[in-house]
Amino acid sequence: LNGANEAAVGLLLAGKIPFGQIAERVAWALERMAPVSRPGLEEILAVDAAARDAALSYSSPQPAGAGPFCP
Description:
The protein has 71 residues and is mainly alpha-helical. It is built from 3 helices and no strands.
């Protein structure tokens, strides 16, 4: 979850997505992650990387003229 959020916020700060899309990207990434029972460090790092990748690969149409801080 944190990895997806950090990736989405990075896109916001780079001016690539509107603020309102952070939650959309994080939720979309979270839906794609399989629960891992009693994960070790390797599993945690792998899921973190997968969540970041998922958040970055999300695509949502942005209304014409919407800036990075428009919902």
